[in-house]
Amino acid sequence: MMRTLRALVTGLGLLALAGVAAFVGFIWRIDRYGHVDGARPADVIIILGARVRPDGQPGSDLLSRTYHALDLYQAGYAKHIICTGGFAGDRLSAAAVACRFATEHGVPPGQAWLAAGTSSTAEDAAAAAEVMRARGWQTAILVSHPLHLYRAAWHFRRLGIVVYPSPTTTEVERIAWPLRLYYAGREAVAILWSVAEGWGMPRAWATWVRSWWSRLSRQMWGESL
Fold first, then answer.
1. Which CATH number fits domain 44-172: 3.40.50.10490, 3.90.1640.10, 3.40.50.620, 3.30.428.10?
2. Is 14 in contact with 22 (CB distance < 8 Å)?
3. Domain residues of the chain, as ranges?
4. Tens of pLDDT along 131-178?
5. What predicted TM-score, i.e. pTM, was given to this entire model?
6. Are 107 and 74 in contact (CB under 8 A)?
7. Is residue 69 within 8 Å of residue 81, measured between CB atoms?
8. What angle do CA 182, 194, 196 make, to 5 degrees?
């Protein structure tokens, strides 16, 4: 009996270690993914939403994303830009602010498209995909923070969109390693959570855990998932 119990405990311990190792490997993969710029000619460039300052100006991350998209646009990689994020019709939504900034810096209004009414990466992907399909576009350069690109590309590919990830010039190496580890880990958790929701996790559980995680994240880092 004791031998069987010891074997069971050992097996569970090894299984737990394997799970931790797999999760650490996943975090490493997410971190490395944003080091490669996969930009190539496409139908459209997509700017994923980020924080907007109270005065209506793009926050540092959104500004970096928009500038990077402008560089790609001006280099001739695509003739259109889609801006995502924020409440539909809100002039201070991430999508509206990014599009306004883009048109002020040389993108004709008819080539900058809104995909607002979203509050998560999954919703950004769905809204942008809807704009693309309505116009017959199939390929997109995806612009975001290096540590966010893996999850963003994952959501778009689930919708059948061909994406070429292109990270901003944010120097990830200059981020303190505990914070960098947290950001990459957060991305990994978000992907696993989306998978669990897809497998039928009760919506009430998902809502509670997301709320708890957001509160914890704000307390620890001033950020939310």
1. 3.40.50.620
2. no
3. 44-172, 175-221
4. 999 999 999 999 999 999 999 999 999 999 999 999 998 877 787 888
5. 0.82
6. no
7. yes
8. 110
Q: What is the DSSP letter of 173?
A: G
Q: Would you state the structure tokens that stand for residue 111, as one six-digit string? A: 């080539």
Looking at residue 133, its pLDDT comes to 96
Q: Does position 114 have pLDDT exceeding 80, yes or no?
A: yes
53 phi, psi to nearest 5 deg: -70, 155
Do 47 and 143 form a contact (C-beta atoms < 8 A)? Answer: yes
Q: Note the pLDDT of residue 89.
A: 64
Residue 210 to residue 32: CA distance in whole angstroms: 26
What distance in Å separates the CA atoms of residue 58 and residue 131, rounded to the nearest whole number?
Answer: 23
Number of C-beta neighbours around residue 49 at 10 A? 28
Which residues are CB-neighbours of 107 under 8 A, at least 6 positions away? 70, 73, 81
**Torsion angle, alpha carbons of 119, 56, 169, 166, to 10:** 40
Out of 16-25, 86-95, 164-173, 202-211, least confident range: 202-211
- SS3 (DSSP) at 27: helix
